[in-house]
Amino acid sequence: MASLILTVIGPDRPGLVRTLAAAVAARGGSWLESRMARLAGQFAGIVLVEAPEALLADLRALEEQGLRIVAQDAGGVPAPVSGSRLALEVVGNDRPGIVRDVTQVLAECGINIEELTTDVASGSFSGGTLFRAEAILRAPGAGAVEAARAGLETLGNELMVDFKPLDD
């Protein structure tokens, strides 16, 4: 059995995840972890599976159904992670470059992004567009979190930043 990370993208349709899961199960594989979403009419996902390498041939057959699949060896035992896990929520007026600026502040503080979800929505009172980001982070210490908070708050007058500790 090999540990494989699969990235999948294709036109969204009912049964797409079932088709992928059936291919893994047909080879006696295990679906270990995944993150998936519908974006602009496309389905995109990343999946960690443990399956025989023969699965790769089956995945090529799925590509004939309009899916694009890239398989990557997940390697051996993952390196241990250190630091505190945090949830971050950022809300503010949208503008070009905001994701770049937010992630730059986090990187400069030595904070790793483990998961990131962003979206924009119409501001109900302002009439403008609001940017919203939710992230799961790994921070090396309290000093890094405070530096990140200060850095993020300087990005905009109306940017609200909230860090919450998470249990590991």
Structure, described:
The protein is α+β, with helices and mostly antiparallel strands and 168 residues long. The chain has two domains: 2-73, 2-Layer Sandwich (Alpha-Beta Plaits); 84-165, Alpha-Beta Plaits, CATH 3.30.70. The chain has helices at residues 16-26, 55-63, 98-108, 142-153, and strands at residues 2-11, 30-39, 42-51, 68-73, 84-93, 112-122, 129-139, 160-165. The strands form two sheets. A four-stranded antiparallel β-sheet has the order 2-3-1-4, with helices on one face. A four-stranded antiparallel β-sheet has the order 6-7-5-8, with helices on one face. The longest helix has 12 residues, at 142-153. The mean pLDDT is 91.
Question: Which features would summarize this protein structure in a list?
Answer:
168 residues, alpha+beta, Alpha-Beta Plaits, 2 domains, four-stranded antiparallel beta sheet, 4 helices, flat
The average pLDDT value, as a whole number, equals 91
Label the CATH architecture of the largest domain.
2-Layer Sandwich
What profile does the largest beta sheet have? 4 strands, antiparallel
Helix content: 25-40%
Q: How many DSSP E strands? A: 8
CATH-level-4 superfamily name of the largest domain: ACT domain
Domain module tally:
2
Class by SSE composition: alpha+beta
Proportion in β-strands: 35-45%
Give the helix/strand layout.
Layout: E1 2-11, H1 16-26, E2 30-39, E3 42-51, H2 55-63, E4 68-73, E5 84-93, H3 98-108, E6 112-122, E7 129-139, H4 142-153, E8 160-165
Question: Brief overview, please?
Answer:
The protein is of the alpha+beta class and 168 residues long. It is built from four helices and eight strands, in the order βαββαββαββαβ.
